[in-house]
Structure formats: structure tokens, C-alpha cells
UniProtKB/TrEMBL annotation:
The keyword Transmembrane applies. The gene is Manea. It is found in: Golgi apparatus membrane. This is Glycoprotein endo-alpha-1,2-mannosidase. It comes from Sylvia atricapilla. The keyword Transferase does not apply. One of its GO terms (cellular component) is Golgi membrane.
Amino acid sequence: ILNYDIMARFRRRTCIILLLFILFICSIMMALKTLRPDRAGFGDPFGLGLLPELQQRTVLLDSKQSSLNRAQGDTVTRVSNLHSIAVNTMKASMSSVKKLEEELSSPNYNFHIFYYTWYGNPQFDGKYIHWNHPLLPHWDPKIANNYPKGRHNPPEDIGANFYPELGSYSSKDPTVIEAHMKQMRSASTGVIVLSWYPPGMADENGEPTDDLVPVVLDYAHKYNLKVTFHIEPYKDRDDRSMYHNVKYIIDRYGSHPAFYRHKTSTGRLLPMFYVYDSYVTIPEIWANLLTVSGSQSIRNTPYDALFIALLVEERHKHDIHRSGFDGMYTYFATNGFSYGSSHHNWASLKAFCDSNNLMFIPSVGPGYIDTSIRPWNNHNTRNRVNGKYYETAFSAALLVRPEIISITSFNEWHEGTQIEKAVPKRTGQVVYLDYKPHKPNVYLELTQKWSEKYRKEQEQWLM
């Protein structure tokens, strides 16, 4: 009997120890996956698949251009009507905005946030756009065969792992634009970095959106926000086309009170342009546009500006300097995905920028998940950990004392980097992620918290 009791106690103790050990291992694995995935280098299959050289992200909408030309008169009418609706809506609510001004935090013009206007629905666009995003196949056919194909079917089934509080909205809806501006202002961001393609062009899953810029500018001004442009990698982008793009933007929108200009250390007020996938173009081509001696030089002209390049790999910092860019940003919200997006590399990048008179703009994000459109890519998911991942990124950014912090993103729903309000939703076999146990506005509140912290710390840096 004594031996039986001893053996029973031994078995119980062994089971408890084994269970605690398993829980400990699971906790360690979760922590490694969420907060410090620095060893997940850019050379993994996900990084290679997203490189523009292997899988071009954007295309010129040639087939749509002819129909656009035929419908140009209708388009102008629609845009004019949309602008009129927006203006009337704003006039009707200006008194409420004045009241909001007293309640909302002041905008921080050193907090820049990436914003997308590529969403559409039948009410405003005649069809769903982007919410019906296709499932992208893996480049390896053997792997691709293991995953579903097709596209999403809104409004219940959308190309995102989270579900927006505003539903499958249209970016043309004035009430949506206003709600977005109010959310961004409540987060104490100051500058909207608007995803932009030249007129008649768009990404491969969208429609041209340049016509929306005046409405975005008007609503931004209503909330005392500024707008700058995130120039996307359209087909045949080079020094000549970029010169015409910049001229077009400044001529068309530069006089608007919401158009962003950055005050440089020399006292100049210059527009700012973020250039996505800038590394696709060789430095010699960029130097034609961005250096004083370049054949297509924009320097010291009425269209001079601050041009911010995307840094992905470490070697890009030298290319950026040779190209004549004024600074670099890191964009990706996946810590460890690329050299630039890995938090532990930001100090050395900031030091390089300081020694070469460049701006370093780290990009922070609340997490990353894109398995709704890349179902094979769960190894690059970065869990939000109820906001801790976001705060870790902000903390890392503040350590290098940047002049500007960029936020990826306000509403890039496909990649799960949004801080826009999201709500719990279950439909059929789909269960969307949400921000519980927090409220839908938790990431706006966290942004506002870190905006204030940044402001206070910046005052200490400048003393």
C-alpha cells in the first residue's frame, strides 16, 4: 500500500511538471512569434515573393483606360457631384467640428499615417472593389495546390482578417471619408500619406482614384490635418514620368490649405513625397531627377520637394544616398521581415542618415496578418498581443529620436496593419479577428498616447 501511494504521488507530480513545462514552452514560442521575430529575414519565401522584380505589384490599366476616355464626361460629372455633396455636408457640420476641436487632441504633424482610398461598393462604385480581393497563389505550384483559390465575396466575405466597423465601405462615400478624418484626428496624427497613382492608373485590383484627392483634401482641412502623397510603383515609372507627376500634384493640389509642406532645417517649406518600391529603379535614373546636376533635375525649381525612399535591404541605404533622395522610410509593419523593418537595425540606420544629411522615418505598425489574401503566409503573421506589439514598435522608434514617425497603416485591411476601428464578426464559416478585450478604437487611443509621449520626449531632445 505504501509503495502504491508513493507511485501515485510520483505520477501526479510528474504529470504536473510535464504540464507546466509544456505551458512554458508554448509561452516562449508565442513571445518569439510576436514581439521579436528578428531572425525572419527578408530572404524568406514571403519576402522574395513580394519583390517587384518577381511579382509586380501594380499594372497600368490599359484595358480600363479606353473606357475611361469614353466615359470622361460622365466621370467629370460624377466627381463634380461628389465634390458638391462633400462641400454641402461639410458646411452643414462646421459647428460640430468647432466643438470637436475643443475635445480632440491637437494634430501631431510629425506623425504620418498611410491611407488607402482604393475600396468600393455597389452603392457608390457599381461593384465591390478591393473587398473582393483574389486569393493570391504561391509562386511554387506544389505549395499553391494546397491552398484555396478564387476571390472573396463581399459584404460578408471580405479580403481581410479583421472586419471594419464601417462595413465594406466605399472610399468615395463622403460620410466614410469624414469618419476616417475624425478617427485620424482623434489619434493625434497630423499628416495623411495618401496612396497615389497618376490619373488613369491604379493597382491591379483597383480603379483610378486621383479624382478623390480634392475631396480628401477638403475633409482633411476640416479636421486640421495635412495630406502628402505616397507615390506607388506604376508601370514605366522613371525620372521623366516622376517629374511630370510631381509637377501635376503641385500644380493641381499645391495651393490647397491641407497640402503638406515640411519645414527643413534651413527654414525652407517643401512638399514631401514618399516613393514606394523606389529601389526597383536604379540610382542613376533617380539621380537625373534628384541631384542638382541631373539631366532632369527638379532641384532648385518651383517643384523641388523632399523625396523619401523605401529602404528594404541594408545595401539600399547607399543607393538612396547616391540617388539624391532626402530620406528613407521602412514601411513594413512586420518586425524581422526586412532589414529596414527590423527594430534592432533602426539605430544604425539613423546614424547613417545623420552622417549623410538624410531623414530617417521609421514605420511602426500594430501587427501583420494577410492570410485572407495570401493563405500560405501565416509564418509572417505578427500577433497584436492586445496592443503590446504596437507599443513595442513605438518604443523602438522613440529610442532613435526620429524627426518623423510613420504609421503603417490607417486602413490597409488586406495586410491586417489597420488601426481603423474594427468590430467582432462571425459569418458562415468565417470568424474575423477583432480587438477584444478592448474597444474598436483601442489602436486610435494607443496612437494618441504615443503621439503625446513623442511630443514630450521631443521637447527634451531639443533642449
